Amino acid sequence: MKELHVDKLFLGVDGFHMERGITTHFEAEALLNKLMCKVASEVIVVTDSSKFGHVCLHKILEPSGVRKIVTDQNIPKDYHEGLQRLGIEVIIVEI
């Protein structure tokens, strides 16, 4: 994995918390995701709005390591604004 060069990584996550980071329930998944994030030029998180504010056991990445987030229109306003302040592009899709 360390020898790969990836332009864009689309990462599905179980939890997204502004202070505690991007997380998952599964240790093996977190370890693999961390490696993939390190070799990617751009990390794009794809998650539904229910994941914002949730924290799972295993941390993957800090929010600042993300370039874009693709989510639905129900993203909490404070998260939408906070992500934009960090310079993260928020892409809203209708479901």
Textual characterization of the structure:
The protein has a 4-stranded parallel β-sheet with strand order 1-4-6-7. It is of the alpha/beta class and 95 residues long. The mean pLDDT is 95.
List the helices and strands and how they pair.
Layout: E1 6-12, E2 15-17, E3 21-24, H1 27-39, E4 40-46, E5 58-61, E6 68-72, H2 77-85, E7 89-93
Parallel strand pairs: 1-4, 4-6, 6-7
Antiparallel strand pairs: 2-3, 3-5
**What is the H/E string?**
EEEHEEEHE
Shape: globular
Average predicted local confidence, pLDDT:
95
Please identify the structural class as seen in this structure: alpha/beta
User: Helical stretch count?
Assistant: 2
Give the proportion of residues in helices: 10-25%
Cα-atom radius of gyration: 13 Å
Unreliable segments of 5+ consecutive residues: none
User: Can you list the strand order of the major beta sheet?
Assistant: 1-4-6-7
* Range of strand content: 35-45%
Let me know the largest β-sheet: 4 strands, parallel
In brief, what are we looking at here?
The chain has two helices and seven strands; from the N terminus they run E-E-E-H-E-E-E-H-E.
Descriptors:
single chain; 95 residues; 4-stranded parallel β-sheet; 7 strands; globular
